[in-house]
Amino acid sequence: MLNKVRIFIFLPLLLQGSLNGRKLEKRMEDWQGIIVKPYWRDYPQSVGRSRSELPELQINQEAHAWVPVGGFDTFLNKFRDISAKHPNVKKISDIISRLAVMPLGMAVSDSQPASINIKSAVSRLLLFYGRELLPLFMKEFTDQWGNASREEEGAACLESLEKILDLYRGGDYFPKEDFILVTDALYALKLLYEYDFIRYSQVKDLFKSERIIESIGRHLVHCHGKKYPDVSGFKNFIPDMDFLKEDSQTSEIHWLLRVLDKPTEGKVLLKSMQEYFSNMETRATRGNLPSMKWATLLDNMFYQEFEWIHSSTTTSQEQLEFLSVYVINILQNKLTTTSLEEVLSNFWIIKFILKYNANKVNQEIVNTNYNILLQHSLIEKILEIQT
Description:
Elements: E1 5-7, E2 39-41, H1 72-85, H2 87-100, H3 113-142, H4 150-165, H5 175-194, H6 200-206, H7 210-222, H8 241-244, H9 254-259, H10 262-276, H11 289-298, H12 300-305, H13 317-336, H14 340-356, H15 361-386
Antiparallel strand pairs: 1-2
Helix pairs in contact: 1-2, 2-3, 2-5, 3-4, 3-5, 4-5, 7-10, 10-14, 13-14, 13-15, 14-15
Signal peptide: 1-21
Keywords: Signal
């Protein structure tokens, strides 16, 4: 929890003219986005409150925030100029304004761990944007670096983002809030990467965290706003990285998906599939093949024990045999089912295993059930035509 933390809030009224130190008496909806006086407060208590309930703030023209850019008036003039020339700076300010007043529903009063976690995560992201990211870009566009290097400050920002994304945030209880948080965190990551504050290897290292892998996997599904089954069209969420790297719904993170190596790509996709298909196991009749199929896919042990292509130095005969039987059973069921959602889910599960597992499952099936595998290839061609 962030107790009595100094924080910058961004208000647009200052873009219309200097307030010369007088108190802000307008409500927050009349404000716009720039830095005002850092104030001491148990900040999480303010997150999610209505605009009219937020305390009055006062400009502090002597605050250290203005010093690197020549004082408050100079900062204000430079901010106006930079925002006009660089839309990313304006968007940073807009994100700060949104996070500062983001409604958190029951999280405002609920003392349960999930609400505490999401409030803490939003507070930390707001702090990051106000205290680290915006000052970083002000330095970038005003050449006010001082003794700090771009790489050092970029690494510090990345460390802060990593800690936020690695938090347990209770996303199942607050999915909308968590989606906004991950979206804004990934936008900050994108800026750091595009402006060369961080390198490819540093982005890749983020995915050493299983929680971050899960966050990105879930996020890909929630970009579409729907859960499976939804087969009203073939171009709803499709658990295929080639599709997701080009899909308009995931355009903001195409850059991130394209820097992932093959094993990490597979891990993110499997987490997406587990989220996407999470309501299917309960729909399956206990004891039949679909029930077994979902129980296996959704079991976290399936993820933990999966031997990833280009990653596993050795492969086990035991996993090869298990996956071969699993795939063959699904293929055989696919030939008899009349359910479109079963056909599609069968197809994507099989394709995932054949593409990302280090064992030669494909060759094993060819040796024993070649005709069944031909049916899988036929469905793939049909889907390619439809999409």
